[in-house]
Amino acid sequence: MTTDSLAGRSLIEPDDLSLKELDRILTLGAHIAADPGRYRDVCRGKILATLFFEPSTRTRLSFEAAMQRLGGTTLGFAEPDASSTAKGESLADTIHTVSCYADIIAMRNPKEGAALLASRHSEVPVINAGDGGHHHPTQTLTDLLTIRSVKHKTEGLTVGFCGDLKFGRTVHSLIKTLARYPGNRFVLISPPELELPEYLVSRVLKPAGIPFTTARRLEDTIASLDILYMTRVQKERFFNEEDYLRLKDSYILDKAKLNLAGSSLAVLHPLPRVNEIHPEVDSDPRALYFRQVQFGMYVRMALIALLTGAPLPEENE
């Protein structure tokens, strides 16, 4: 296989990738998960810059671990005050400067559209690690690889999205991507205030002919699901703390609710969780969110290798 179609490109949203390219990344991610040692030197001499203008633990460390496991190195910052934007430098200038030092950039920014702007001022590929409530494409790749690993497919599934569907960028990205695969059905479980934005319904679900239903109670729908995608109610997306406090405990998955589900249910969560999944669920074999974290590192290894045009073992065989 060749990496030419992806080498040198940026990834701002999942729609930037064709289904064939998505499959290429997921297949490579699965190969890396099966034998990570084969890929430990493919990015030797390359540098990843992680520019995180918004706090993150898992995503930033996952990117850094991915690059280091590929044999590369990392540089960057984890807080906006650590960059020259705190002095008034424009994002465009920051990106242009950093792209002179690195071979690839992973950036998180609280402002929607920031990643697209960055890609237009960078000399190297930019990976969107989250831009406000817009997109989080590498989390979508993580979710897809996890789903494929346990269901052996990404189509013909009934997927329940539960919690904050209004502000959850991971939900938005995954829904848009799963809607491209045939036969998928969605159950949208949320309070009225946190329903999926209308533009996703009118521009994505309806044009694609995706069957979907809405629900208010998780226990009413959990038995019908192949995948349950839990999300936290995100305090940082609310302008009114009173609204956040009223809604933050709307949905909590515990053993009692999980006992209503089928044995083949897969429970996913992009993390971090607050209290929307009770710790008693962690030991259930259907709880896959910590395995999901590991798949995230492997799929980011695949993406970095492909976007940087790294030589891959299977291409030399």
Structure description:
Helix 7 links the parallel strand 6 and strand 7. The protein is α/β, with parallel strands linked by helices. It has ten helices and nine strands. The model has no long low-confidence stretch (mean pLDDT 91). The chain has a five-stranded parallel beta sheet, covered by helices on one side.
What's the arrangement of secondary structure elements?
Elements: H1 19-34, E1 47-52, H2 58-69, E2 73-77, H3 91-98, E3 104-109, H4 114-120, E4 126-131, H5 137-151, E5 158-162, H6 169-178, E6 185-189, H7 198-208, E7 212-215, E8 227-230, H8 241-247, H9 255-258, E9 266-268, H10 289-307
Parallel strand pairs: 1-2, 1-3, 3-4, 5-6, 5-8, 6-7, 8-9
Helix pairs in contact: 1-5, 1-10, 2-10, 3-4, 5-6, 5-10
